[in-house]
Specification:
By secondary structure, the chain is an alpha+beta fold. It folds into 3 domains: 26 residues; 61 residues, no CATH class; 268 residues, Thrombin, subunit H (Beta Barrel). It is built from 7 helices and 16 strands. It is globular and about 55 Å long.
Length: 371
């Protein structure tokens, strides 16, 4: 009996040793490290798994899926690779329109306009309108509103426009200086009214001017407007060359962002020479607001006239609607609502609609201007 018991125990021990030996060998073939650390390394004879793991870690970084660990019955850790996803994860990459800073772009391109009728001997300057303009080409083309350069009562253009500018930002509250005279290149001849808004608002509110010359040193326009003439060093921010008056100038300008597509809730920046509490408009002011809607003039279901929830003031006419992510121009400010509809909005002609209107009215392609 004792011998049989001994033989039975010996058999059990032998089986146990054999199982242990097989288990250890198997473990050594598959796992090098069997601790509980999530950093346990895999050492498998198939070396391709290392490269797969590296790639899986790249995928996990992109897709926010972590490489998971599970604990098998034998206590060893091993890695379960996340499934490779065929779906490409897209990110909104916004390209800046210029390497210049926002301040540099605005300082060199957003200008003030005084338009009126100057008599021959420069003793009177009448029917003056004041607004904002944007230099949009190196040749000195300026974008502004039709109602800045056109007299709706007299049904004629204002013969003389002058470009003024104060520094941006204007920490010392310096008054604008007179830089150039500009001529009107083109504007829509026919008024086009929107039925959606009040009848005194038209949506073809755009015009193109061109810088033609600096005021003569003996000009009296500074006395008529009450502003100093710009000094030679003042021109350095607007002109990117140092040429004489007889040579062609190259102007800094505000690039147009042709990639941006507006959505309700997008944050926009509006810029213009708006009036302050004392009714002066001596410096560029900016407001930040969300896109609150779109006026669809011709029912094409495209962005056309954008409504911006911002506190722009009188003087912003002809100002810039800026995409803050790209620093690019995306619209031309036309007017502000004050009783037309509930609330107060800055109204801007969207870039694409502006281009189509210009092409239709005077065969001017805005998109080619900066190329």
């Amino acid at each position: 009996m004792t011998f049989k018991l001994f033989k039975f125990v010996s058999l059990i021990v032998a089986v146990a040793i054999a199982i242990s030996f097989i288990f250890v060998v198997f473990n050594r073939l598959i796992f090098v490290n069997s601790n509980d650390s999530p950093d346990a390394k895999i050492s498998v004879k198939n070396n391709n798994l290392d490269s797969i793991l590296k790639e899986s870690k790249k995928i996990s970084t992109t897709t926010n899926d972590s490489v998971k660990t599970v604990k098998p019955e034998n206590g060893s850790n091993f890695y379960i690779l996340p499934p490779i996803k065929s779906k490409v994860i897209k990110t909104d990459i916004v390209n800046e329109v210029s390497s210049k800073s926002f301040e540099e772009l605005i300082n060199s391109s957003v200008i003030q306009l005084y338009c009126g009728n100057l008599n021959l001997d420069e003793t009177t300057f009448s029917d003056i309108s004041r607004g904002t303009g944007i230099i949009i080409s190196e040749s000195g083309k300026v974008l502004t509103n039709r109602h800045v350069i056109y007299d709706d009562n007299a049904k004629k253009i204002k013969n003389n426009c002058f470009i003024l500018k104060s520094p941006f930002p204007n920490v010392e509250s310096r008054k604008p200086k007179i830089y150039y005279a500009a001529e009107i290149i083109n504007y829509p001849l026919t008024e086009k009214f929107s039925d959606f808004f009040s009848k005194d608002k038209y949506y073809n509110d755009f015009a193109i001017l061109k810088i033609i010359k600096k005021p003569e040193t003996n000009s009296k326009i500074n006395l008529l407007l009450g502003f100093d003439l710009a000094a030679p060093e003042d021109y350095l921010i607007i002109e990117n060359n140092n040429l004489s008056d007889n040579e062609a100038r190259i102007f800094n300008f505000l690039p147009i962002d042709w990639d941006y597509q507006p959505k309700d809730g997008d944050i926009m920046i509006t810029l213009g020479y708006g009036v302050d509490a004392s009714r002066l408009a001596n410096q560029i002011t900016s407001t930040i607001g969300k896109i609150a809607g779109n006026i669809n003039i011709n029912k094409k279901l495209e962005p056309q006239i954008l409504l911006i929830e911002s506190n722009a003031t009188s003087g912003f006419s002809g100002g810039a609607l800026i995409n803050p992510q790209s620093k690019g121009l995306v619209g031309l400010i036309s007017w502000i609502t004050a009783g037309d509809i509930t609330g107060k909005y800055t109204v801007a002609i969207f870039r694409d609609f502006l281009r189509s209107l210009m092409l239709a009215d005077f065969n001017f392609d805005l998109k080619l201007l900066q190329n």
